[in-house]
Amino acid sequence: MKIIECVPNISLSARPEKLRRIINAVQNTPGALLLHTDENPSANRTVLTFAGEPGAVLQAANTCIKTALQEIDMRAHRGAHPRLGAVDVCPLVPVQGITLEETALLARTLARQAALENNLPVYLYEAAAQRPERKNLADVRRGEYESLPQKLQSQPPDFGPTVWDEHTQKTGACIIGARNILIAFNINLNTQDAASAKQIAAAIREKNGGLKCVKAIGWYMENFGRAQVSCNLTDYTTTGPAQVFEECKRQAARLGVKTTGCELVGLIPRQALLNAGKFYARDKALPPQDLIKLAVEKLNLNDVKPFRPHQQILEELLEQNQRA
Prior knowledge:
The protein has twelve helices and eleven strands.
């Protein structure tokens, strides 16, 4: 069976009734399994994760985008996280029985459909990108929503309108693509000073000569009362959460602050936690469940909110569904 995952990032958190209608649009799609919902009030952003066979996931993604565009007005949006539109980014991820190249073709199909049906500017990124300068999400998103009046003209979307009219002002633009599994997690600091987090992020990100396959920004999260280093690990087999956390510890000490733990955003592959457990176990042989417990403890994944393995480890959720 071919299985793909979809992880739309919705520019909304503070309006539960609106968010519920978007979530319902996914849950009411036959064959699409909603795996996880992660809300962040300070970022004013919600990350949904759902999976299934490609046809069901594409249908759920299209309905999710359509509903979000109805519920969100970007002219009033404020939040800490960079964003380009109501559905800021919507990646498709190969999980089982399908290649990244095949998933990229599906992403282009979704992008074309979303643009046509919603009169929506859509940019392609990562494996679905049709231009090399659009592979990197940060490059596509640069300038954020506020840059769109100029961007639509100077860097036209791959699909959809280029006119900055009342409709586009409300929806913003959407970035759709295909990528491999990404781990999104934040390292918490014992300070409210966002400048420290930004300095650490600059030191660890690959683009600046830091850790390979790591993207990072720094910010202050009001709902946690902490500054955080917000990280995306694009290949956890190259650089995993433990390596990033330990490097953040070193950089924080240099600035006179401390790391207190981590916050996982969305889901994590089981192997990433096993790798982190092995990192901290050193040469000590431990069974898989003990390795996962050790990883959770050493990364302090319960620092600002509970980490629930049965709800946040990707394979466990898929296995639960198969058993059901």
